[in-house]
Amino acid sequence: MTVTKNVPKSLANNRLDKVAASLFPDFSRTQIKKWILDGRILINGDLSKPKDMTVNRDNISIFERGLVWYTVYHLLIWAPV
Fold it and tell me: Distance between CA 26 and CA 62 in Å, rounded?
């Protein structure tokens, strides 16, 4: 489940952790900061840091579970037989 809210003009130009704590008052700022670092809170779909500044109408999303990023490497070894 994902919950997304827009940053109102009154909260623009503040740190992400402060704005998210205001938009989602059920959670502490400490918990919000941990979720940002875990990749569970995004600004406009992008990973961010707690100290990143927000602007008016940014979309802040909280994910029920963190995003998992996988990098798959393919290794092809050619050796004559």
Answer: 12
**Number of Cα atoms under 13 Å in the Cβ half of residue 75:** 3
CATH 1.20.1600.10 fits 2-63, yes or no: no
- Look up the pTM and report it: 0.75
- Mean pLDDT by 10-residue block, N- to C-terminus, for the chain (81 residues)? 92 96 92 93 94 95 66 60 58
Q: Where are the domains of the chain?
A: 2-63
First to last CA, the chain: 52
